[in-house]
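Schema walk-through. Below, the input block comes first and the output block second. Nothing else is stored per chain. Lengths vary across the set, and this one has 543 residues.
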Amino acid sequence: MASYLHKRDNFLLLQTLIGATVLSSSARLLLPGLKQQLLCMWDPRGWAIAMLLHVAFSEPVFYWAHRALHRGPLFSHYHAAHHFSHVTTPLTAGFGTPVECLLLTLAMGVPLAGAFLMGAGSVGLVYGHTIAFDYLRSMGYSNVEVISPRVFQAFPPLRYLVYTPSYLSLHHREKHSNFCLFMPLFDLLGGTLNHKSWQVQKDVYLGKDEKAPDFVFLAHVVDMMASMHVPFVLRSCSSTPFNNHLVLLPFWPVAFAFMLLMWCCSKTFLVSSYCLYGNLHQMWTVPRYGFQYFIPAAKKGINQQIELAILRADRMGVRVLSLAALNKNEALNGGGTLFVNKHPDLRVRVVHGNTLTAAVILNEIPSNVKDVFLTGATSKLGRAIALYLCRKKIRVLMLTMSSERFLKIQGEAPAEFQQHLVQVTKYQAAQNCKTWLVGKWLSPREQRWAPAGTHFHQFVVPPIIGFRRDCTYGKLAAMRLPKDVQGLGYCEYTMERGVVHACHAGGVVHFLEGWEHHEVGAIDVGRIDVVWKAALKHGFTPV
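--- output ---
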């Protein structure tokens, strides 16, 4: 299953290889006039021929082949993987075995080949037919109705000429009807038309019985390169952990243009969905990039976007909304307290997930450690980590220039453990400490003060760069999702498939436990072990 999910671009690669082979062979053997046709920008005869072949060949061949794939061993060997996800998305439109990819390529290629063989091909036909085919395929899998039921009521024959997303979703849910490629006419002729199709399409379009996600993770874009890692942009890229590949550089100007557009006029949008224990979980993204969170003038606009997302989730009936790293920045909104105080009647629970993040970091520290060096010591996570470790009689060197903040945190610790919290103001103080907990970005010069063999545990965004070869670097706090997760065909930023940031996992645990409190503001140190045990109970595992 994982190999299929990892190679969802095979359909495109197969089309490219077959197209190049056919064109090369035709140019040499079959079509002496092929070059003239490829120089022609438009030929209406070619469009007419392609349309005729699509209706007379592609549609019926796909229909009968699709029905055959739903029978006995053919389904289990070649088609079951395509039905793995009950939630259709454009990403799953080209997701299938090599046999299914060949079938789609045949359905798409024959009309084009026929037009060229009859001497009516053109450049416009090649691009136009391909774009139209891919659009209809993706539209059907989009799970969003784009055609008003009033159009079908005004012109009833149209419902047999073009399918809808709800028409296709019925096939994915019930499997024994609605087999057509794009035209329900062939289901009608074959006796496999699901007669609920039009009523379901109307109900979906009007929003009746719309199921809201149970849990939402409100993410944000890290930088320009990472913006191309989202599932609906580059599928091959998003199916593996993010890295700054050279192949992405040519797309940078396009990503920059979209950033400006998003900054000006876009709203929170859906990135992906997955299912856990039968509950629908979604990831939404605030259209803001990492650097924008540190621009004072952008603070108000970012908080408005987050607030709108929370209110939208509240109206939809979402039970828990978890905030990603910078969306809960203390300087931005007090770790989410701004929204909870402003809207005291929220039904949706707002969660920063940092309690589980702290638990993950703390459980990574070896049991024999006697002292640690902590940067970002007065942040939400730094404070909780320091207070937890001092109770374990571990000496915590807290790097902070503010004696007032240090004394405030030290005062929160029980009197008998306060001596284990030590304020330091320079990195030199940690030159004999081999356990660094990094909550503030470290330059190469600052990292040089760590002794050889140091391990850097991280809770800083973006993560620090590993300059020292004689030291080891941990990744951002994360947990592996339970094995029951379905439909997760992408990687969350630099994480492996099926691994999410700890704050994401913390929100999921909050939902699964049915906790009714908001988890915002300062971390309750007394709940760190409670949340950790709850995560393990539900099948989450440390990475």
